[in-house]
Amino acid sequence: MATGGEWLGWKTARGRVLYINSELTDYDLESRLNKLADALGLDGLPDGLDVWHLRGQAMTLSGLLPEILRRQQEHGPYSLLLPDPLYRFGQGRDENDNGVQAVTMGELGELAEQTSAAVLVAHHFSKGNKAGTDHLDRASGAGMFARAPDSILTLTAHEVADCFTLETTCRSFARPEPVVVRWQYPLWEI
């Protein structure tokens, strides 16, 4: 999105992106981003990509909002926010409790509404092979993870090595046909 290029086969509208890293060391993330930029043929990281390193800092989703709004006032609006990974912003919340996760989903909604940006989060499956489970029911924890998002994308191991089936459900749009993607480090290819 920071370049206006394609993402998993979909054309993106160019816009500023804020990647909120709460898991990787600064070096590890910067190394990954530079490898990705090189693979995309870019001369360094795109100007529209901001990275906020929070590893080692306790932060809730609602705690992110004041700083994001400050950054937007200073540098202009974001089109996409990526707090990654979602569980790091839960501060010990019970992942299996629908009431508790309703608060999490409300905070994600507040981030989107207050900033006018899309919010994309990564979440994990529960343990075991989920190929026989509907893709909306694969997320670990509360059923809220399948009901609250406007779009859900899942990657499920495919019979071909290094390939995954990408399934998508959108609240307001027709459901795209599943596609098979391959992990060709550091990029996904359809």
Query: Percent helix among the residues?
Result: 25-40%
How big a fraction of the residues is strand? Answer: 15-25%
Helix tally equals 4
Describe the main β-sheet briefly.
4 strands, parallel
Find the structural class using helix and strand composition: alpha/beta
Spatial ordering of strands, largest sheet: 4-3-5-6
Describe the structure using short key phrases:
190 residues; four-stranded antiparallel β-sheet; 10 strands; alpha/beta; four-stranded parallel β-sheet; 27% helix
Describe this structure in words.
The protein is of the alpha/beta class and 190 residues long. 27% of the residues lie in helices and 24% in strands. The strands form three sheets. It has a four-stranded parallel beta sheet, covered by helices on one side. Helix 1 links the parallel strand 3 (17-21) and strand 4 (49-53).
